[in-house]
């Protein structure tokens, strides 16, 4: 595990590193890679999320999440659902045995809110408690650290129906109560908690473009929209996610951390953006997109407010923090995880700022010259090293600590000299 750089008068910030190497057909160079090539204490692991791996969506008291509703409404590829998936709910012992055979140090998984508290609030499901206790104990018995994500997109459908989910501030209290159940029941064994997974993509997917549930979005920005407003709701949802993270982190630090000895943070999606050309406007566009994408959460966490460029471009549509909220948000993390899948080239498109109606991409005033998984330039995409086979040979980093040593910038020029570089 790498730790952040630090100044003498400040606390250290840990970067939890879970590195999954999927390196096939790389040739002699790849064959030479061993654990010994990584720093001492580097944590190798793999990860999953409850909805993607557990199955058993209607068993032992679990109730639907918004993703169950989404996939059963025909919006997934080929009508696929997560009713069975890898069936980890029934096969967790087999899965942990396989993880042990792989030699991993850690396993990052998420707890399904509608399995643990089926209605989103209120009664705790004893079968849910039993399953996660069994999984955690099985991991520990094989020498594998459990790294737990409290919320990974599977919002309880009951709360979505009741108050439109994360659009309501009621979500913050319900989420904090749910997190409290997790800390109370599992915190004696779980030492790494991630409050929310990729809160910088869920507002875009679910409340701007509409390719995630609950598909709240508006024309001309979204697809298959179920009401919504793409110009305002992504910012409201992100704000509430940030406040929910801070609320849970505060609860953990005040009530549990001293006794349980764990760490708490959150995990962001980390697409890195580079300028398509060396023109000043494109260089500025790449920095602006990184501010919108990563600084959206990191800047409040480090400095107590959104990036100045977001304040300028989004204006009154960007929520504000109260003085009490600022105190709670600022510094509310022991580590930050980055799901780093790759990078993309961007160009400036300042004409978007002239549009009366703007969504997230309009406010960022950029356009992609290469989409993250497409290659419109006559060269390998940024996320694939030269010589790699694009399909069969990819280094995939989940919760990596940096993007090519440049994470200091989107973290907001942190005076504590955070630099989780070259992970």
Q: From the alpha carbons, calculate the radius of gyration and give it in angstroms.
A: 21 Å
Question: Per the principal axes of the C-alpha atoms, what is the gross shape?
Answer: globular
How many individual β-strands? 9
**CATH homologous superfamily classification:** Glycosidases
CATH architecture: Alpha-Beta Barrel
Tally of individual domains: 1
Span between N and C termini? 9 Å
> What is the fold named in CATH at topology level?
TIM Barrel
Number of helices: 14
As residue ranges, the low-confidence spans are: 1-29, 373-423
Largest sheet: 9 strands, mixed
Q: Tell me, rounded to a whole number, the average pLDDT.
A: 85
Assigned CATH class:
Alpha Beta
H/E series:
EHEHHHEHHEHHEHHEHHHEHEE
Bin the strand percentage: 15-25%
Give the structural class: alpha/beta
Helix content: 25-40%
